[in-house]
Amino acid sequence: MIPVTDALSIDDDEISITYIRAGGPGGQNVNKVSSAAQLRFDVRNSPSLNGRAKERLERIAGARLTKDGVIVITANRFRTQEANRRDAVDRLVELIAAAAHQPKFRVPTKPSRAAKQKRVEEKVKRGTTKKLRSLRPNDD
């Protein structure tokens, strides 16, 4: 089990990790060893997530989501398979945690009449101050 939040965790069977060749540092070894981790997580068929979390996760995933609803995360920051595997899993956990957090419902409000009046008065006062700065006494 991979813990995401206090109330949510995903099963290890829900993710699949394959290793692919990665560019970057590694010298001659880079062309021989498959150290980059490619993680796949099927959002639509996941029993761990509820409907709203799945919708938010698909929206948040963006280009990482395939047409079939599978999130693909490629991690090649590190030289070792284990470090890249941990990095990919951590990035998936961050995505799922962000999707699991339900945003607070915001009731749109309008400024009160007094607030509008105060804003206009402050603007007039500021404009008057600026106008007084530019006025110069006449040298008659």
UniProtKB/TrEMBL annotation:
Gene3D superfamilies: 3.30.160.20. It comes from the Bacteria. One of its GO terms (molecular function) is ribosome binding. It holds the Pfam family RF-1. Signal peptide: none annotated. InterPro entries: Pep_chain_release_fac_I. SUPFAM superfamilies: Peptidyl-tRNA hydrolase domain-like. GO terms for biological process: rescue of stalled ribosome. Residues 104-140 are annotated as: Disordered. Residues 8-133 form the Prokaryotic-type class I peptide chain release factors domain. This is Class I peptide chain release factor. It comes from Parvibaculum lavamentivorans (strain DS-1 / DSM 13023 / NCIMB 13966).
